[in-house]
Amino acid sequence: MSDPQPGSLAPEELTVGGILAAARAERGLSVSEVAQRLKFSPRQIEALEADRYESLPGAPFVRGMVRSYAKLLGIDAAPLLGSLERKVIAGDVEMQPRDMSVPFPAERRPGSRVYVLLSMLIVLAVAVVLAEWFLRSQHPAQPAAPVAVAPPASEPLPPPGAPAPTEPIPVPEPEPAPAQPAAAPEAAAAPAAKPAPAAATETAAAAPPRDVAVPEAPPARGPIPPGKSRVTLEFEQESWVEIRDASGEIVFSGLNRAGTRRVIQGVAPFELVIGNASAVQLSFNDAPVALKPHVRSDVARVTLE
Known about the structure:
Layout: H1 16-26, H2 31-38, H3 42-49, H4 59-73, H5 78-93, H6 110-138, H7 198-206, E1 229-235, E2 239-244, E3 250-256, E4 261-266, E5 270-275, E6 280-284, E7 287-289, E8 295-296, E9 299-304
Antiparallel strand pairs: 1-4, 1-6, 2-3, 2-5, 5-9, 6-7, 8-9
Helix pairs in contact: 1-4, 2-3, 4-5
């Protein structure tokens, strides 16, 4: 793709991609040099300068590219992002399906049938309880008939005129004389000590010792698996990151929003490329790593071993 002629950085007739292409040509940079510095592919840089946003992964990725590209060229990214939001991003968000009159299925879900059945059973149970209460109020329970209790059996009464029988009067027997107490021996045996109650002994045996070791709480962060390492990134602002493990494969690549955190575990050494590095906090195996010595044009390249 041919570079635009150098001139004004933001003429009204240029698009976002055209402004970036003009600024790049004005600084004497090629597409390959820009792609190498920003860690994007040349095809992605060409697509951005040609405003072919459908060839890029998505709106957040496009915003990150524009911000990093503008920072590399030393121009203000805010007008470019505003124009991008009005012309491109907003159009993607306002997409609607052609046919908005899609009929909902008339068939009821099985869950609604179960709900209707349970409701009918509850109403039926309430109706039965009310009917029983109404019948009891109309016909109060009759008191139980008294049960005749037969009098205790007694001796037949004497015929009239017969003398009443006399009962014998009991004669008290003489009380026996109290026995004389035996003389106490000179050396009396000492009383045996009372054994301690069994319940108290069992309670003392069952009581736990006072000094019991309490296990410590587990650490706040989980342990790192053997043979692996952990990389933690915290983003204060939006930043694009690419991470490769010991095999050279990309284990993570993407744009991260502000206020988020990313944790990657794998086999070290790791090679990291971090855009907008001044707004990123990096830790390796839970130890902080300073990014400032590795930053060039706000892009950090770090190898963690």
